[in-house]
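Honest question from a wet-lab person: if I give you the sequences of every part of a complex, can you actually get the arrangement of the whole thing, not just the pieces? Trying it with mine:
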Amino acid sequence: MCTEVVDLLEPLHDGELDIAEQVRVENHLEVCAACHATARELREVREMMSAALVRTPRLEVPHPRMHERRFVLVPFADLAPDVRHPVTRMTIREMRDALPEHEMVQPWKPLS
Ligand SMILES: [Zn+2]
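Yes, you can. This is the full assembly:
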């Protein structure tokens, strides 16, 4: 049940569930502490993303070419793959998977 519920959290927040699914997910969130915590984290990340929407003549946040940058999207997708870009509405995972394969990103390792 939990994996299925977690997959429905983003559609729940986006208002994309039918009423029966919405009630089922919300009932589960009332009794499952783990899913409740995941839902809260997801909501906080979404709020952070929308709060970070800035458009001035000299500054755009998120960066207008964020969707082209593997060094941004690979670590972001590790942290929050289902978060949607506030403008394109694509998930971070969808943007990462749409990148061309020629760029490599490797996790940083400290020198020993
Ligand atoms: Zn659960």
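Two things worth pointing out. Strands lie at 54-55, 60-61. The chain has five helices and two strands.
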